[in-house]
Write a structure and sequence with these properties.
Helix content is 31%, strand content 20%. The protein has eleven helices and 15 strands. It has a seven-stranded parallel beta sheet, with helices on both faces. It has a six-stranded parallel beta sheet with strand order 10-15-14-11-13-12, sandwiched between helices. It is globular.
Length: 382
C-alpha cells in the first residue's frame, strides 16, 4: 500500500519508519516537534491595504507589477526573472495591496533569516497601517498577521493558508533543490504564488512554461545603467594575498566600502586575522557569528571600512559605492549563479551605478567565465 506523507508529500518508502505502531517520515521529521494548526484561525478583512511608497516605479517595473496583479486575478502563478538590483520587491506591492483588500492571507518567504528580518522592517514601513510580522527559528511566538514574512523552514506551520505567497531567492540555500522545503511551500498555499529570482534553474523555468504559469523578465536595473562586469585576477600563493591587500588599500583611500567574499567560515576567520594586521576598521561576518546583525548595521553606518564575509551577505545588501572582491573565486562552492548574485551587490544605487567586482583566483574556471558571459547578456537588453 502506497503511503504519502501529509506534511512533505514524500512517497519514497525508504524514508518511512514505524514508532509505537505509527508511521513517520524521516525526510521531514525535524518539522514534527511543534506543529501549529491554523485551520481554526483567521484574520478579519484588512482595513488598510495601500502601500506607502515615496517614489515612482520605472515604466518597466510598473508594467511588470500590473502583469503580476493581472495574473493573480486570473489564478496564474508568476516567476519574476529579474537581475540583481532590478527592484523585485517593489514589483509585488500592487498584488499585495489587492490580496489584502480582498481579505487574503499574504506570506513573503525567503530562505535566509537575515533577509527575513530586513524585509520585515521594509514591508512594515511600506504597509505602515498593516500588521507585519516576522517568523524564523527562535522567533515564532506570533503566527498571524496581515503580512507574514518568514523563512522557508517556517512554512511547515501553515497548511493551505496563504491566498498569496511570494517566494524570493528561490535559488538560495537551503531552499534550492530541497524537495522537503519545496513540498512545504506548495502545501502552505491556498491561492496562488509569485516566485522571484535573478538566476532561476532550467527546471524552474520549464515548470513555469505552462498555461497556468507565466514568466516575466526584467534584465536591467531601475536606473538603466549596465551591470558592472567582474574582472579576473589570476595570482598564485602569497601573491594572491598581496594583491588583495593592495586593492583594498586603494578602495579605502578612495573612501569606498568593501565586501571581501570567501567560500568558507574557516577561511573568513583566517583571512581576517591576516588582513587586520595591515588594514584597520574592518570585521568578519558569517552564519556562526552571533552579533552579525550588529556588525552589518555598523558597516552600513560606515563604522567599518570593510567586511570579510561568507555567502551570508550574498543577497539583500544595498550600499552606496560598494566594491566587491571574491577571494578564491575558483572554489567549487562558487557556481555561476552564486558569482552573479555576489556581483549583483555592486552598482545597485542610482547615484553610484558603477563599481569594481574582482575575482581573485589561482585559475580561471568555467563558472567564472559563465557568470561574466551571463552578465554581458543581461546588459545587451538595455
Amino acid at each position: 500500500m502506497e503511503y504519502t506523507c501529509p506534511l512533505c508529500g514524500n512517497k519514497d518508502s525508504k524514508f518511512f519508519g514505524y514508532r509505537n505502531g505509527k508511521i513517520y517520515c524521516r525526510r521531514c521529521i525535524s518539522f514534527h516537534g511543534e506543529m501549529a494548526s491554523l485551520n481554526n484561525l483567521s484574520t478579519s478583512k484588512s482595513l488598510f491595504y495601500k502601500a506607502n511608497v515615496k517614489y515612482a516605479l520605472s515604466e518597466e517595473q510598473e508594467a511588470i507589477s500590473l502583469k503580476i496583479l493581472d495574473g493573480y486575478k486570473k489564478k496564474i502563478n508568476t516567476l519574476v526573472y529579474a537581475v540583481c538590483g532590478a527592484g523585485k520587491t517593489e514589483l509585488v506591492f500592487k498584488v499585495i495591496e489587492y490580496a489584502l483588500k480582498k481579505g487574503g492571507h499574504v506570506g513573503f518567504a525567503i530562505p535566509r533569516k537575515d533577509v527575513v528580518i530586513e524585509l520585515k522592517e521594509r514591508l512594515a514601513k511600506t504597509f505602515d497601517k498593516n500588521k507585519v510580522i516576522a517568523l524564523y527559528g527562535g522567533h515564532n511566538n506570533e503566527l498571524i498577521g496581515d503580512i507574514i514574512v518568514l523563512t522557508t523552514h517556517q512554512l511547515y506551520r501553515y497548511d493551505h493558508h496563504f491566498n498569496l505567497l511570494i517566494l524570493d531567492e528561490i535559488d538560495a540555500f537551503p531552499y534550492k533543490d530541497n524537495p522537503t522545503l519545496e513540498a512545504l511551500f506548495k502545501r502552505s498555499i491556498k491561492g496562488n504564488y509569485v516566485m522571484m529570482s535573478a538566476t532561476p534553474s532550467k527546471r524552474i523555468i520549464d515548470e513555469f512554461n505552462s498555461p497556468s504559469h507565466q514568466i516575466l523578465k526584467l534584465f536591467h536595473r531601475y536606473h538603466k545603467n549596465p551591470l558592472p562586469l567582474p574582472k579576473i585576477k589570476i595570482e598564485l600563493l602569497i601573491f594572491k594575498y598581496l594583491f588583495l591587500i593592495k586593492k583594498m588599500k586603494e578602495f579605502i583611500k578612495e573612501n569606498k566600502p568593501i565586501l571581501v567574499f570567501v567560500p568558507t567560515i574557516k577561511e573568513s576567520e583566517s583571512l581576517f586575522s591576516l588582513v587586520r594586521i595591515f588594514l584597520k576598521n574592518g570585521n568578519v561576518v558569517h552564519s556562526k557569528k552571533e552579533d552579525r546583525a550588529e556588525i552589518i548595521n555598523d558597516f552600513r553606518e560606515h563604522k567599518y571600512k570593510y567586511l570579510i564575509t561568507t555567502s551570508v551577505l550574498e543577497r539583500g545588501v544595498t550600499l552606496p559605492n560598494l566594491q566587491v572582491i571574491i577571494f578564491h573565486s575558483d572554489h567549487y562552492l562558487y557556481t555561476s549563479s552564486a558569482l552573479i548574485q555576489i556581483s549583483g551587490r555592486v552598482g545597485r544605487v542610482k547615484e553610484y551605478p558603477k563599481g569594481e567586482i574582482i575575482y581573485i583566483a589561482s585559475k580561471k574556471t568555467k563558472e567564472m567565465e559563465d557568470s561574466i558571459e551571463t552578465i554581458n547578456e543581461y546588459n545587451k537588453d538595455l
